[in-house]
Specification:
This protein is α+β, with helices and mostly antiparallel strands and 360 residues long. The protein has 10 helices and 10 strands. The strands form 3 sheets. A 4-stranded mixed sheet has the order 1-4-5-8. A 4-stranded antiparallel sheet has the order 2-3-7-6, with no helix packed on it. β4 and β5 form a beta hairpin. The N and C termini lie far apart (43 Å).
Length: 360
């Protein structure tokens, strides 16, 4: 499916900046939106390792779709792991069956890396919460059917944050103008504005005050997803560079036979294989019920740095044509950069790894 349905459509959508909503319906019908979630709700009940390998293959074909799948899976995580049986039965089948698409609303303009500083407020008013505030950098902003929202329900610092499952058509909820981004132009990223939006109290996931705990648990799993996306992108860039180097001739022979290029490609391959090993390690620990937070940060750090290096080197291998839009190398390079920023910057990952080491 990645080869036949996604790869050929990527360049056109990215050039036009159009969101491929129909692709996510296809993923849902194919059973790929709910791979790690329970079979009783329509999921695949597959190991996280399997889900991540699928995510890598999709990202290898089209990064916007890979990142979108990772974000949607993370948006489903709080309901799947912290919701009640009744909540899961009511909403989860549509979420993982492709009938609804999700967004994850945590970041704010002043609360990115410092998630506990968020100020969007949800005030209980009878049988609903009235939500006021603005969220930033929301993937699928304006096109999602639901948003997993972290909002402040009390002034008790990190313990004053709660998780709400917000319907995308809620009155008082609106999306800003899509950001003009360097890459992933087929994926809309916007602000979300809440102006007294009334969210039914039945949409509270977990208890009041559990929001930051839920958000951080979702991010650990989401970081493995972004690592898998990064490896897929790096693999695509490596494949392109190798194929070009085999065909491009200089001085009467393919450039892949010159040691300068041969060693560069070898280093690229080594980085891709090493990065893949980090996310698989984290996934296997997660599947075994072992702590995997540090491994998720390592995978996110290593894989996204690898994607930046390999895509940059792919442009170098292609030379002048790599700098043109006739080949996807320049798009891969632009797409790689954001991977080092979202789901926690790579500087934050180093901080988290250091804290894990201090506790060990």
């Amino acid at each position: 499916m990645a080869r036949d349905e996604l790869a050929g459509a990527a360049a056109g959508h990215e050039a036009a900046g159009t969101f491929p909503r129909e692709v996510f319906e296809l993923l849902g019908k194919s059973g790929l939106l709910g791979l790690p979630y329970p079979e009783q709700y329509g999921g695949g009940e597959q190991p996280y390792e399997v889900y991540l390998q699928v995510l890598e293959e999709i990202s290898r074909a089209w990064m916007t779709v890979g990142v979108g799948l990772s974000v949607h899976t993370m948006a489903c995580f709080p309901l799947a792991h912290f919701g009640t049986d009744g909540q899961r039965e009511k909403w989860l089948p549509d979420m993982i069956g492709g009938r609804t698409l999700g967004g994850y609303a945590l970041s704010e303009s002043h609360a990115g890396s410092d998630a506990a500083a968020l100020s969007t407020r949800a005030v209980r008013a009878g049988d609903a919460y009235e939500v006021t505030g603005t969220k930033s950098w929301i993937t699928h902003g304006g096109v999602a059917d639901f948003y997993t929202l972290m909002a402040r329900t009390s002034d008790d610092g990190p313990r004053g944050i709660s998780c709400l499952l917000v319907d995308g058509t809620t009155p008082g909820l609106s999306a800003g103008t899509p950001e003009h981004k360097m890459g992933l132009t087929g994926s809309p990223t916007t602000e979300l504005r809440f102006d007294g939006a009334r969210v039914p109290a039945e949409r509270l996931v977990g208890a009041e005050g559990d929001g930051l705990k839920i958000a951080l648990a979702a991010l650990d799993s989401g970081r493995l997803g972004i690592a898998a996306c990064a490896v897929g992108l790096a693999q695509a860039a490596l494949d392109l560079a190798v194929d070009y180097a085999k065909q491009r001739e200089q001085f009467g022979r393919p450039i892949i036979e010159f040691q300068g290029l041969e060693f560069l490609l070898a280093d690229m391959a080594a980085v891709v294989h090493s990065a893949r090993a980090t996310y698989l390690d984290g996934a296997r620990r997660r599947d075994a019920g072992m702590p995997f937070g540090m491994q998720a940060s390592v995978a996110k750090l290593v894989a996204t740095d690898a994607a930046m290096k390999v895509t940059t080197d792919a442009v170098q291998v292609l030379g002048g044509v790599g700098y043109t839009r006739d080949f996807p190398a320049e798009r891969y390079m632009r797409e790689a950069k954001v991977l080092q920023i979202f789901e926690g910057t790579n500087q934050i990952q180093r901080m988290l790894i250091g804290r894990h080491l201090a506790k060990s």
